[in-house]
Structure formats: structure tokens, C-alpha cells
Specification:
single chain, alpha/beta, Lysozyme-like, six-stranded mixed β-sheet, two-stranded antiparallel sheet, 10 strands, about 20% helix, globular
């Protein structure tokens, strides 16, 4: 098992260790609110080409709250595939084969991961970054295609995943 240590200063997250512990993923798909009349489409895992990083843009909420918000927008359910809370807990919120709504025009080819919190107002926690890196590496190993890691703002006109998430640095960390 490995453990990583991070220094978070300004807008940069710097790795100062090389070890990480195993990632635990909690499957919460069946407990999340869903539309009674709408369903997300399905896809082959071979159609996935991107991992898209988001932030919830609000503090103090979790997957159930996000699912309720997405239902109010007329969606079939939560738009993300995974949510990572401030303590680093990873919740699986949709199957990878689900085409959920998280980046208009890019949903069929992407997996959405949301970091809980308003990351335009504060930095992600060390635990969130540790879990995000582990999850991305796990998805890169699990899915058949080469995956590109992008921030929501790189595909859409938005600040998401927040000004405190350095996507270039994140891509360097998950390259291996």
C-alpha cells in the first residue's frame, strides 16, 4: 500500500511522497433519487475517451443533494459517475455504461467525476486529491481506450472544476 503527501499552496498541488493506499469506492447508485419517467441511455465502455473533472460549486452537500438538484433540472438522475467528498470518500453514482448528463455534447464519450465543494472559493482537500488521482488511475487501467483527463471548463463555458483545480498539474500526476 502506498501513501502520498501533498503540499497545497496557491493554485498548485505538489506531490512530496510516493506512496498511496488502496481506493475504496462506495456504490450508492441504488439509493440515489431518480426520475420515475426518464432514464439515461447506455453505451459500450469502448466509447469512453475522456474523464471530466467537476466541482459541485457548493459546500456541505453530497450525492443525494446533487441528484435532487439534477432532477429539478429535468434530468433522469445525478449527472456524475463518481462524487468525492472533502474527506476523500468516493461514491459511485452511475454505472460507467450510463450516459449521464455532465458536459453537454460530450456525455457519450466521458465519465464525470465531481469533487464536493466550491473549488473556486477554496482548495480541494488533500484527501480529495489523493482519491481523485487513485480513481483516475483505476479508470485508466479498467477502461479499454486511452483516456484524456479534462476539466469541465475545457469543454464548456464554465469555471468548473473551480480556479483551485490545476488541470495541467493533475494530468502530470495521473500520467503513469
Amino acid at each position: 500500500m502506498k501513501k502520498a503527501w501533498w503540499i497545497i499552496s496557491g493554485l498548485t498541488i505538489t506531490a512530496i511522497g510516493t506512496t498511496m493506499t488502496a481506493l475504496q469506492i462506495n456504490n450508492v447508485i441504488d439509493i440515489l433519487p431518480k426520475s420515475k419517467s426518464k432514464n439515461y441511455g447506455k453505451r459500450a465502455l469502448s466509447s469512453i475517451k475522456n474523464i471530466v473533472v467537476h466541482h459541485s460549486a457548493i459546500d456541505g452537500f453530497g450525492p443525494v443533494d446533487y441528484a435532487l438538484w439534477h432532477l429539478k433540472r429535468g434530468w433522469p438522475g445525478i449527472g456524475y459517475h463518481y462524487v468525492i467528498d472533502k474527506d476523500g470518500k468516493v461514491d459511485k453514482t452511475n454505472e460507467l455504461s450510463t450516459i449521464s448528463y455532465h458536459v453537454k455534447g460530450h456525455n457519450t464519450a466521458s465519465v464525470g467525476i465531481s469533487l464536493s465543494g466550491n473549488l473556486s472559493k477554496h482548495k480541494p482537500t488533500k484527501a480529495q486529491i489523493d482519491s481523485l488521482i487513485k480513481l483516475i488511475k483505476e479508470l485508466k487501467n479498467e477502461l479499454p481506450n486511452k483516456l484524456f483527463v479534462k476539466g469541465h471548463r475545457e469543454l464548456s463555458s464554465t469555471q468548473c472544476p473551480g480556479k483551485f483545480v490545476d488541470m495541467d498539474f493533475l494530468r502530470k500526476l495521473v500520467k503513469g
